[in-house]
C-alpha cells in the first residue's frame, strides 16, 4: 500500500493524547459485506448495517479493491448523475480517471484525492485509463459520500484536486504509526481538503504493536474502518480485522492498537479514520441522490430524465488525461454559464438511450451504480 510513505518517520510531528482526555467507548463493530460496483469492480460496503444517524454527516463508504487486475479486466462506472452531497475518492494503489459534464476532473493515483461537490447536480464518470486496461495491475481505493446541509445542496458543482504531496504527515507518540491527514484538522495540523461540512479524514498505517491515541472533537462522531491487518479498538481492546467498521461513542480520544503479529499478506494495520459534525437534518436517499425529503429525491430523478442535470461531453480520444480541473462548475446548466467550455462540446441528452459512451438511459439504470439503495431511505 504505497499511498504516501516517508523514509524517516521520526522527523514527523508526533500526535499525543491530551492530558486528562477520555477515550471514546466502542459502540459497535460491523463487518462490511462484499459486492460489485459499476461495470464490475469489487467493493466492500463499509457502512452497511449501521444506523444512518450514527454516520451523520457521512452517507456511504466503499472500499474499492484491493484487486490485482489482469490485462483487459479493469472496470469503472458508466456516466451517472449526483445531487445533494460530495463524493471523495481516495486512491491508495493504482490510477483512476474522473470526468464530469462541466469539464471538471482529471487523473488521480497513489495517495491522491478527488473531492467532487455535486451540489445542485452533475453527471460524471469514473474509469481506469486505457493504459491500465491494457496492462492490468493493482487497484485499491475508497469512495466516501459526505452529506451537505439543506442550505448547500443547491450550490454549484465544483472539484478539488488534492495531491499526495499536499497531505499533512504526522506520527503517533510511539513513532510506530504514520498518520496522513487528508481533510480537516488533527492536533493543530490541517489537511489540504476544504470541506463544506466540518469533518476530519485520515489514513493511518500502524506497525505491529503500535498504538494511536488521537485527540478528537467531542462534537464530531468517530468512525474507524480497518482496511488491512488486525488489532484492537478502544480502551476495551475489542478485536477488529480487515473489513470491519468501528463506531465509537462519547469521549475525546480515539484509541487503536495494532496486534503484535500481523499476517504476511498484511504486514501492517491500515485504518481509514473519519468523523464530522452531525448535520442533524432529515435525510431522504435513493440511488445517486441524497436530499432532505422524498419529494426532492423524486424531483432529482425527474430533472435527470429531462436533461436538467446537463449533457455528456464529447471528449476526443487522448484528451482526458490532460483535462483541466474545473473547480467552479462553469459550463453546466446548474453551475454558472450554460455555454459548453472549449474542451467539452455537448451532444447527448442525459435522458438519452445507452450508447457507446455508457450513458444511462433512465432513472432505473442509475439506481445501483454505486451500490446505493434502490428504494427510498429516510431518516
Could you explain the architecture of this structure?
With 379 residues, the protein is mainly beta. It has a single domain (11-276), classed as Sandwich (Jelly Rolls). It has 4 helices and 30 strands. The chain has helices at 52-55, 130-135, 294-306, 363-366; strands at residues 14-15, 26-31, 34-37, 41-45, 58-69, 80-82, 85-93, 95-100, 105-109, 113-117, 122-127, 137-147, 158-162, 168-172, 177-183, 185-186, 189-190, 199-206, 211-215, 223-228, 230-233, 238-241, 244-248, 253-258, 269-276, 284-286, 289-291, 311-314, 345-349, 377-378. Strands 1-14-15-18-25-20-23-2 form an 8-stranded mixed beta sheet, with no helix packed on it. It has a 7-stranded antiparallel beta sheet with strand order 3-4-5-12-7-10-13. The protein is globular and about 55 Å long. 49% of the residues are buried. The model is unreliable at 316-361 (pLDDT under 50).
What's the topology here?
Blueprint: E1 14-15, E2 26-31, E3 34-37, E4 41-45, H1 52-55, E5 58-69, E6 80-82, E7 85-93, E8 95-100, E9 105-109, E10 113-117, E11 122-127, H2 130-135, E12 137-147, E13 158-162, E14 168-172, E15 177-183, E16 185-186, E17 189-190, E18 199-206, E19 211-215, E20 223-228, E21 230-233, E22 238-241, E23 244-248, E24 253-258, E25 269-276, E26 284-286, E27 289-291, H3 294-306, E28 311-314, E29 345-349, H4 363-366, E30 377-378
Parallel strand pairs: 1-14
Antiparallel strand pairs: 2-23, 3-4, 4-5, 5-12, 6-11, 7-10, 7-12, 8-9, 8-11, 10-13, 14-15, 15-18, 16-17, 18-25, 19-24, 20-23, 20-25, 21-22, 21-24, 26-27, 26-30, 28-29
Amino acid at each position: 500500500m504505497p499511498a504516501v510513505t516517508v523514509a524517516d518517520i521520526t522527523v514527523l510531528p508526533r500526535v499525543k493524547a491530551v492530558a486528562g482526555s477520555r477515550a471514546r467507548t466502542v459502540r459497535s463493530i460491523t463487518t462490511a459485506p462484499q459486492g460489485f460496483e459499476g461495470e464490475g469492480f469489487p467493493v466492500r460496503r463499509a457502512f452497511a448495517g449501521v444506523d444512518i444517524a450514527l454516520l451523520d454527516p457521512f452517507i456511504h463508504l466503499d472500499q474499492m479493491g484491493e484487486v490485482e487486475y489482469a490485462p483487459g479486466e479493469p472496470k469503472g462506472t458508466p456516466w451517472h448523475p449526483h445531487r445533494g452531497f460530495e463524493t471523495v475518492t481516495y486512491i491508495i494503489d493504482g490510477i483512476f480517471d474522473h470526468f464530469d459534464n462541466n469539464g471538471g476532473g482529471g487523473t488521480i493515483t497513489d495517495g491522491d484525492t478527488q473531492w467532487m461537490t455535486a451540489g445542485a447536480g452533475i453527471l460524471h464518470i469514473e474509469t481506469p485509463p486505457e493504459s491500465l486496461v491494457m496492462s492490468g495491475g493493482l487497484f485499491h481505493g475508497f469512495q466516501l459520500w459526505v452529506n451537505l446541509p439543506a442550505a448547500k445542496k443547491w450550490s454549484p458543482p465544483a472539484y478539488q484536486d488534492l495531491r499526495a504531496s499536499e497531505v499533512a504527515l504526522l506520527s503517533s507518540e510511539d513513532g510506530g504509526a504514520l498518520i496522513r491527514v487528508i481533510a480537516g484538522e488533527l492536533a493543530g495540523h490541517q489537511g489540504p481538503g476544504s470541506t463544506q461540512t466540518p469533518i476530519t479524514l485520515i489514513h493511518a498505517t500502524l506497525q505491529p504493536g503500535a498504538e494511536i491515541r488521537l485527540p478528537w472533537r467531542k462534537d464530531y462522531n468517530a468512525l474507524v474502518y480497518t482496511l488491512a491487518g488486525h488489532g484492537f479498538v478502544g480502551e476495551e481492546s475489542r478485536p477488529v480485522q480487515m473489513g470491519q467498521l468501528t463506531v465509537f461513542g462519547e469521549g475525546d480520544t480515539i484509541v487503536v492498537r495494532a496486534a503484535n503479529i500481523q499476517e504476511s499478506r498484511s504486514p501492517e494495520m491500515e485504518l481509514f479514520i473519519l468523523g464530522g459534525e452531525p448535520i442533524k437534518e432529515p435525510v431522504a436517499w435513493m440511488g445517486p441522490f441524497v436530499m432532505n425529503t422524498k419529494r426532492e429525491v423524486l424531483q432529482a430523478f425527474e430533472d435527470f430524465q429531462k436533461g436538467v442535470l446537463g449533457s455528456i461531453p464529447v471528449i476526443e480520444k487522448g484528451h482526458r488525461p490532460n483535462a483541466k480541473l474545473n473547480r467552479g462548475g462553469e459550463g453546466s446548466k446548474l453551475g454558472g454559464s450554460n455555454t459548453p467550455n472549449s474542451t467539452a462540446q455537448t451532444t447527448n441528452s442525459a435522458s438519452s438511450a445507452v450508447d457507446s459512451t455508457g450513458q444511462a438511459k433512465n432513472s432505473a439504470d442509475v439506481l445501483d451504480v454505486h451500490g446505493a439503495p434502490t428504494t427510498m431511505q429516510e431518516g
